[in-house]
Each structure stands twice: as C-alpha cells, then as structure tokens.
Amino acid sequence: MTASLPPVLEVRAAHKRFGAVHALKGVGLKAYRNEVLALLGDNGAGKSTLIKCISGVHEIDEGEILIDGQPVALHSPAAARSAGIETVYQDLALFDNLTPAQNFFCGREIAGPSWLPKGLQFLRTRQMDKDAAAVIERLKVKLPKFDAQVALMSGGQRQAIAVARATVFARKLVILDEPTAALGLRESRKVLDLVDQLRDEGNAVILITHNMEHVVDLADRAIVLRQGHKVGELRPDRSNQKEMVSMIMGAE
Ligand SMILES: Nc1ncnc2c1ncn2[C@@H]1O[C@H](COP(=O)(O)OP(=O)(O)O)[C@@H](O)[C@H]1O
Ligand SMILES: [Mg+2]
Question: Which residues pair with 123 in a beta bridge?
Fold first, then answer.
C-alpha cells in the first residue's frame, strides 16, 4: 500500500434499492493494490449487491464509484471488465452446455489469423483448450475429461474454473464472492493460495467469506456490513476475531 497512490477502487456513499428493499444504505469502501480486503456480513447484509454494483451487474441509485481516482460509470459487466475488474460470483456464472475452455474464454475468445477482418477469423479452439488446461492444472483440481460439459462437474470443479478464469484475466481488481463455499479442504487451500498470488501480483482483492479462519489468515483489512450499512472496519488478527463476529451479528 502506497499512501500517495489513490485506491484502485473507491465506492462513496452508495445506495441501492430493489423496490421496497433498501439493500445498500450509503456504503463506502476503498481497496488498494497488494491488499486483500475482506467484505464481511451476515446473509442479506448487502455484500453480493455491493460487489454486483462494482462489477456492472447492478447500477447504484446514488453515490459514486472511482477507479484509480477517476469516477466511472459501470453500465455492464463488460464495462467493469474493461476497467480491469474480474469477478467470481457467488451464483456461479458458468454455462452448463459449454466445456471448461469455452467457459473460460466466453466473451473474449481467441480468434485468428489477425490479418483477416474480425468477422472472417476463426476460433483458436485448440489454443484456448491449451491455455485453459494450463491454468486449471496450476490449480491442481481434478476435472473429468477436459472437453466434458460443465453440467457434468461438481460444485468444486466449477468454482475452480471460475477462480482460474479470474486469475488469468486479472489486471487490477479481483472480487471473489464466497469462492470456497462449495469446496473441500484441499480445493479451498488452492483457492486461498491463488488469492495470495493475486495480491502479490499487485492486484487489489476483495474477498467475501464466512470463514473467519480464512479472514485472519489472508485479509489485510476487513469491513463489515449489516443490513445495508457499513458498521465496522479493522485489521483482522486472532485477537479481534470475536469483535469481528459480534460486528457481523450485531451483538455487543
Ligand atoms: N435482485 C434482487 N432483487 C430484489 N432484492 C434483492 C436482489 N438482490 C438482493 N436483494 C435483497 O437485498 C438484500 C441484500 O442481499 P445480498 O446483497 O444478496 O446479501 P448478502 O450477499 O450479504 O447475503 C437482501 O434483502 C436481498 O433479499
Ligand atoms: Mg451474497
């Protein structure tokens, strides 16, 4: 963290309503390079809504989002991606009828040759299979045949593909919404190692998790949401684990 650099991401006084539900009530946050920021809160606190506003899935009703100090309008997930934001959603957005490689490159397929106009290029299927396989290999997740459809895979295998995709395309900010929720111990460890790696490569990482061990092990800073409000911010360690839990629960 360098004090002179603006945060990679800043959210100012964000409000989001879904009809009568006021999901975000003036939430602010800052995320810095080389930092893992844990986003904590009970179910319904507004965590997923907040990250979906940062990822271009929802638009905030009031407030501001700044990337590298510049206000941005993130009207779509594609706009967020081109601003350097990679997101692994809780409700995993993988397409059942596609293979892992196709899921991997969905929306950013490798095509060629480059001297042909875009519309006449063909997909570099083998290149994409190879690239996707290489990353998933790094994750050490056992997949069924690589050209199998995603529909045939377990929750853990799907999650691994989604996280792997984010690590490959990460440029600035990576958001992981409960990335270990569907994983066993060994797979969780791999994902946490990737989180470390993403931070060491200079990204800002926002990690949503209910696992306090993971928060204490990994997060440099944590913010807590409750019923759409930001109710706390601290540097997680063993000594304030209880304090974090009571912030989350709202019990003093
Ligand atoms: N698309 C939506 N339409 C209506 N209400 C929603 C929608 N998404 C979230 N909510 C509501 O917003 C509140 C916050 O939800 P969410 O952000 O998913 O919480 P968390 O991820 O912290 O569990 C909840 O009351 C939830 O029911
Ligand atoms: Mg959620």
Answer: 111
